[in-house]
Amino acid sequence: MANATTITTGSTEPSEELDPRTTVYIACGLIVALFGIYFPVLRNMVHHWSIIEDYQHGFIVAPLALFFAYERRWELEEAPIKGSWLGMLPLLIGLTSLAIGRLGTELMTMRWGFVFTLIGLVLLLLGRDIFKILAFPLFFLFLMVPLPASLTNTVAFPLQLMAAKFAVFSLQELGIPALVEGNIIHLAHTELFVHEACSGLRSLMALITLGVVFAHFFKRGVLWIQILLIASTIPIAIFVNAFRVALTGYLAHKFGEEAAGGAIHDFQGIFTFGMAFFILLGEGRLIEWLLGFSNRPGLSTSGQENDPSPPGTGNLENSGGTQ
After folding, report:
1. Quick check: 207 and 237 in contact, CB under 8 A?
2. pLDDT, tens digit, for every residue of 290-301?
3. What is the mean pLDDT of the chain?
């Protein structure tokens, strides 16, 4: 990384100049200490991933964040190291979140506190230039933090009702007698209960993470397209989960209740998540086609066609003179 420069008085950057290599060593040492301080919190979070299927995507978030940082290694080598006092703000937020979380036994607050503290250390010791380069990998880490149970229960139940209503509507359109009562689907010979696990929250969280990764590699630098792709993962996840519930109801009606559970039910989850991924890819291809169509040479932004005059001829009025 480039050598540090002298800092003028009154700036938001630390006034004492340190050798860049020494600064990096200090930052690495403090990050290791940070892992030691938050080790009980991180261990509990990893255990949460292992027992709650809705958040098993958390296992790949940290490796992906490291990969995103690694692919920026050439930019990091060129960036100057100039610590910024602005890092004190996220650092204080992180440490305060840890303290409040311990007092109130609020896990999400402590877990978010780890990410905020990490962001604060990077900004405080390495500076704004390094932080700008590592901003995406750092903020990507928030996706590994599970939501509190109170929030997931609030979100999951409306998703259950939505999936049940869509399934009943689809079955009725296929001529299959079905009736919905809350999150219970009544069929001719059986009943299906749309459990919390069938709310689609699991596929929603995983698909949002996948959407962020896909948007990162798709149309880099075009922020509005990336935001559109990420936002579209929410309706896509809701649709494919409702489709899965409807498919379960169809199989239960045609082949019995046994066809709605076990390995068949698990395979449906894999199939519908793959379908969601291909819908996201199709959306990306559609955006590419629309952008390519709007940028065709035959079309102009003013809504006028290009000059149809053959090569070698010009407009006498615009030639700068007359013959």
Report:
1. yes
2. 887 777 665 544
3. 80
Q: Which residues contact 113 (CB under 8 A, 6 or more apart)?
A: 38, 41, 93, 94, 95, 96, 97, 98, 101
Bridge-based pairing state of the strands 178-181 and 184-187: antiparallel
Query: Cα(20)–Cα(17) distance, rounded to whole angstroms?
Result: 9
Contact 164, 156 (CB under 8 A): no
- In the DSSP assignment, the letter for residue 257 is G
Q: Give 164's contacts (C-beta < 8 A, 6+ positions apart).
A: 180, 182, 183, 184, 185, 194, 245
Name the least confident of 2-6, 74-78, 81-85: 2-6
Give yes or no for residue 113 having a pLDDT over 70: yes
Phi and psi at 181, nearest 5°, equal -140, 95
N-term to C-term CA, the chain: 63
Contact 161, 199 (CB under 8 A): no
Choose among 184, 214, 220: nearest CA to 283.
Answer: 214
Say what percent of the chain tops pLDDT 70: 83
* Bridge partner list, 200: none
Q: Which two tokens stand for residue 217?
A: 């590699």
Say which residues have a Cβ less than 8 Å from residue 119's Cβ, sequence separation at least 6: 87, 90, 94, 131, 138, 139
Q: Where are the extended beta strands (E) located within the chain?
A: 178-181, 184-187, 191-193
Cβ 284 vs Cβ 232: under 8 Å: no
